[in-house]
Amino acid sequence: MALKVCKFGGTSLASAEQFRKVATIALADDDRKIVVVSAPGKRNKPDTKVTDLLIAFAEAKLGGSGAEAVQQSILDRFAGIIEGLELPREEFETIATLLKSRGEGNRNHRARYIDSIKALGEEFSARLLAAFLRKEGHDFIYVDPKEAGLVLSDEPGNAQVLPESYELLRPLRDSAHRIIFPGFYGYAKNGNLVAFPRGGSDITGAILAAAVHADVYENFTDVDNVFAADPRIVEKPAAIHEMTYAEMRELSYAGFSVLHDEALQPAFNAKIPVHIRNTNNPESRGTLISLERSNHELPVVGVAGSSDFCAIFLSKYLMNREKGFGRRLLQIIEDADLSYEHTPSGIDHISVIIKESTFTPEVEKQVLERIRTELQPDKLIVQRGIALIMIVGDGMSKQIGVAKRATGALSDHGVNLEMINQGASESSIMFGIQSGDMNKAIVALHDAFFNT
Amino acid sequence: MALKVCKFGGTSLASAEQFRKVATIALADDDRKIVVVSAPGKRNKPDTKVTDLLIAFAEAKLGGSGAEAVQQSILDRFAGIIEGLELPREEFETIATLLKSRGEGNRNHRARYIDSIKALGEEFSARLLAAFLRKEGHDFIYVDPKEAGLVLSDEPGNAQVLPESYELLRPLRDSAHRIIFPGFYGYAKNGNLVAFPRGGSDITGAILAAAVHADVYENFTDVDNVFAADPRIVEKPAAIHEMTYAEMRELSYAGFSVLHDEALQPAFNAKIPVHIRNTNNPESRGTLISLERSNHELPVVGVAGSSDFCAIFLSKYLMNREKGFGRRLLQIIEDADLSYEHTPSGIDHISVIIKESTFTPEVEKQVLERIRTELQPDKLIVQRGIALIMIVGDGMSKQIGVAKRATGALSDHGVNLEMINQGASESSIMFGIQSGDMNKAIVALHDAFFNT
């Protein structure tokens, strides 16, 4: 018998109807032993996520006004779900009591207090799903992260899993019952509740999958699969049914918003396949993300872009004879607490590409001043408004003609290439272009590789 | 009246017949006020350059045997030139006396002694050319670099010009006579003769051109012009009649052997155009190298390659979050006294490209060990046998379709691209390929841009 850990995102638990879908999916496969849940998300576009309501509630309690109204909204959301699931009135009482008492908790440490409140969304989701499944006659229990041993660093809102958690959580594998586990939070060694950063429920699921050596980590969301490009930019982008961890990571970095690749890291590290699936269409094939993919016909699995970049360009005659030039340049960047993305270079030129948002006018002034003084370039220019486009595909460097197709498509659509970067053994090619050309470039590249 | 500095290379002075060509060229234009000469070069393929004979003579004197025979070969070469130029017998006596007395000089400092001997080739060339022109009734004088003020750093075989030389040499501009100046050497402040590194006569000409503010530096060699690719690789490569300093430099770096770009640096710095011309075909248009070129139709002026490269490839999950990762890697490279060429990178990967000849097994062991210990990469691979191909052209980054043509040509010829590097505002694109594909790639790229 295989062992599966499933995680359901916020839209999968937005309403009683969605809860029922989750229950159906959980019950459809006896291997789904551990189910991780998010807080109820949006039911429709103008709706508010329960987590955001909880944060607003916490802020109101901290600020001193409006808390009552927000509290009522939160309770209304859960009342609706409880009613729709035909759960007994006591379930609501439990939730209302927990919310009120937690709201009266210690408010001395602002971030810690907010964590303690916002984590209630996941806790309530998990409690209600377990109650519903039990009511329907199935052996599911709610498991508390503290009791289970999900031990995190004591960093409110930005907690990291501690290595001992994996050993502590392992016995869940042999639990006599099937488990409903709240995502997004755990406990520091001092007993404080602490929440993960964004993508927190994905992290919880990935940690559990790794701890119990799951055969697969099923990540249920609201899309049928990962697409080869952003559907907001490309009309009907190609569906991608298989990709590797490395490809996922490159795409996530390049602007893909389906998943936080870092959230999945515990599963990747443990080499557990991650299966992206759709709660609203569980029959669809989904996207399987694993160490290697079986289908090698696709040289490229995705195209993504991000437009918030700028380049510091330096030229200096005989730069390549000056040992340490590049290293000293990167030291200046590092001293300014900047991260850089790439450093494409020629014989007498080097560009350092950084996120434009981090390169404020003050930082720019200070960095350029040091570069001028310490490196004495002949030319020093800052180019703003750069977009980086990546095409991603494992082993593309072993396939002839990928660069040709990509540069041909960009040229045919009138996109001027300012920079190109492809490193040895890499699974991506990066193109630097003007921000204004970004969407045109993504469409051109998607069509070149997927509409053939 | 314009002022021109001309320099003639070794093949231009290989025989009396060549000396006469040089004299004719010098006399054809009154603006050619300063003529810099190399030592007599090869008359034919199996011949030996006078400079190599002089070095062999110095080595024999230092080693103690065979000096007589080499001395005779040297004197024979000059006897032939003197006879062919119908110069009086005294010219030969002067040369023979100078060679013998210099041969008996101080041999305590080996490199210094070799410099003092090998510089005689240029000195004799200059003395004989001046004597010939005077005999023919023209007002040319031989100028000694020491008297003229060509002051160099005291580094035998690798001397560098000292800044004061430019002021000291400037009065040559107003000399009452036209000047023949020996290339390749000057004098240290302590009075010692010291020679430039390779390309030394080109350096002397460039320094003189800068010192006297010449309108052009005419560099006479034995080719009609610079070619768009190496004629040993590409059959009938395109002739390039105009290029910029930056383009010349990129091509020279990438493997072009026509000129040493560093030798021309003094002229480039002073913004003096360098005109490459052919002594054997002075009517040909040549190649004008200057700050900017007037012809902007050619996006690419040349294709060159070099095959002595290897890449250190590292991958590490979340590398881009580790501030200072790239800088620490370059520090390790620098500590091993290695220069690197490029560092193409992806999100979790970086490659450092270095000259393979400098990356010996011992250096490799030490560098990889430090990388493993200090950077803990997930993967660390050294790829050897890499060729770097460059296509060069100012402003190519502003022209759409250059990358398309290049990658298309490579793909169509079955060349797999391992790396691509094009930085912002650059005048080149670099392609990393397998060494075995180098010539094929150069032919493909040349044909793509020049046979259209």
The CATH class designation of the largest domain in chain A is: Alpha Beta
Per the CATH scheme, the topology name of the largest domain in chain A is Carbamate kinase
SS class of chain A: alpha/beta
Mean pLDDT of chain A: 92
> Biggest β-sheet of chain A, characterized?
8 strands, mixed
Give start-end ranges of low-pLDDT stretches of chain A.
none
Secondary structure tally, helices of chain A: 15
Helix content of chain A: 25-40%
Number of strands of chain A: 19
Major protein interface: A-B, 73 and 73 residues
CATH homologous superfamily descriptor of the largest domain in chain A: Acetylglutamate kinase-like
- Terminal CA distance of chain A reads 42 Å
Tell me what you see in this structure.
2 copies of one chain form a homodimer. With 452 residues, the first copy, chain A, is of the alpha/beta class. Chain A has 2 domains: 4-222, Carbamate kinase; 302-450, 2-Layer Sandwich (VC0802-like), CATH 3.30.2130.10. Chain A has 15 helices and 19 strands. In chain A, the strands form 4 sheets. Chain A has an 8-stranded mixed β-sheet with strand order 3-5-2-1-8-12-13-11, sandwiched between helices. In chain A, β18 and β19 form a beta hairpin. In chain A, α2 (50-63) runs antiparallel to α5 and α4 (89-103) runs antiparallel to α6 (120-135). The two termini of chain A are 42 Å apart. Chains A, B: Substrate binds at residues 51, 122. Chains A, B: Keywords: Amino-acid biosynthesis, ATP-binding, Diaminopimelate biosynthesis, Kinase, Lysine biosynthesis, Nucleotide-binding, Transferase. Chains A, B: It catalyses: L-aspartate + ATP = 4-phospho-L-aspartate + ADP. Chains A, B: Belongs to the aspartokinase family.
